[in-house]
Please model this.
Amino acid sequence: MGAARVVETLARTGGFSTKVARGRLFETTQHLLQCTKSVESIKPGGDGWASTIRVRLLHAAVRNRILKLASTRSGYYDVQAWGIPINDLDSMGTIVTFSATLIWLSLPRQGVFLSRQEKADYVALWRYIAYVIGCPTDHLESPDQARRLMEALLLYEIHPTETSKIMANNVIKCLEGQPPGYASADFLSASARWLNGSALSDALGLMRPSLYYWALMAGQCIFVCAFSYTNRAVPSWDRKKIDLLKRVFWQVIVDAKYGLKGKESTFEFKYVPEYTTITELGECVEEKGTNSYVERRNLKAFLIAVGAMGVGTFVAFKVVSGIVRSIF
Model:
């Protein structure tokens, strides 16, 4: 949401108001799950390939609609300032967000580091998705190139505006207290700050959570690291974990009544830009849950880690003390 030009397009679709943003995020996650389901899924004719083609057509429809409205009403959308909606640069930024940013920012900030082969494989997947969706792939030929593109875009494209603040806070509000995790706004903000840094988060107007929620985020990182590295150490466990998570995420995102209710999105042109459609700051429109499973789990992980460190420190102190006494 920090890319000033991109959010001007998103704001005009209305897809990130608090009433519909959660469903919009579920649809995006469905697309990701379909693209990573299997090799067959991403080949021509597969579910991942088909959904990517639909997203490409959706982008074309949004682009044409906004340009048509801009040509008939001055001030609706400034093409000179913001460029053609969903242009090649915007598309490259989106691909990088789902690939390079994950590899070199999001995962490392949670303590997870991919191997060289994993980086190459993941960039290759998104290079192919970029090709199918009609995005230039010249700067995605290798992990190093993808990283350089990410760094260039972060430097030149991330300039949050007031619209950026509205969009970012709407995402927090639409997820607050909602299933399956029932995370609080404070925890969601702590998560965003942990992954994006304080400077960008301040520019987006995100709330500053207390140290308690930072501790919960530390607990989440401990849980993620333990889960990831334990399974990675045993390839058979890793394969079973991946298969299990794919099924669980699909059930949660697509099949569950609080997700897409069993109706797979076909990425229809339902968020139609209109002269009067400009996304505004909203409030959570659904009933909020207060019993957060995610926060309880992270607190347990944090306390276990602190306890283990305390025991380890005590044992180390006793060992060193014994050695010192035996010497002197």
The two ends are 62 Å apart (CA to CA).
